[in-house]
Write a structure and sequence with these properties.
mainly alpha; Ferritin; about 70% helix
Length: about 180
């Protein structure tokens, strides 16, 4: 069954929002590299990769349902962050906004009785719980660290271990 036009329009906006999210995290990552916090930069870079896979999951879904993804310009992002705490507080606020956007798409899908979209969106609803929790947790750790350079370096080392895993793909293989 071809995707509902209202749902298609909402998902197309979300594709743009996910790409914006990737830009946002790349901008934050670059600032961390500039300030020699390469572990935090790594965490943010991995987050950018994850956001790209989210955009592609939506993109593929629209195509699979016979729709047409649109590619409007992606708004530029801020890159002049004061410190990692400011970044992660902004990331948490951003993730809450993304959660609200996904919930709004779910509302459209339910109103349009588009069960396939509702089913697909359940993955994103669950994912956003994790996204909000991760950014909030790091912001809270940074608040605890305060002005401690030792604490910041320990967190930087901890965040350096994050690796990218494409969780949008089913286990056991990549989708073409």
């Amino acid at each position: 069954m071809k995707i509902n036009k209202k749902v298609e329009e909402a998902i197309n906006k979300q594709i743009n929002a996910e790409l914006y999210s990737a830009y946002l995290y790349l901008g934050m990552s670059s600032k961390c590299v500039e300030t020699n916090l390469k572990g935090i930069a790594n965490w943010l870079y991995v987050q950018a990769q994850e956001e790209m896979t989210h955009a592609m999951k939506f993109y593929r879904f629209v195509l699979d349902r016979g729709g047409h993804p649109v590619m409007p310009a992606i708004e530029g992002v801020r890159t002049d962050w004061k410190d990692p705490l400011e970044m992660f507080e902004a990331a948490y606020e951003h993730e809450k906004k993304v959660s609200a956007m996904i919930n709004a798409i779910m509302d459209v899908a339910i109103a349009e009785r588009d069960h396939a979209t509702s089913s697909m969106l359940n993955w994103f609803v669950d994912e956003q719980v994790e996204e909000e929790a991760n950014s909030s947790e790091i912001a809270e750790k940074l608040k605890l660290i305060g002005a401690s350079k030792d604490g910041l370096l320990m967190l930087d080392k901890e965040l350096s271990t994050r690796v990218f895993v494409d969780r949008t793909q089913p286990a056991g293989g990549a989708q073409a």
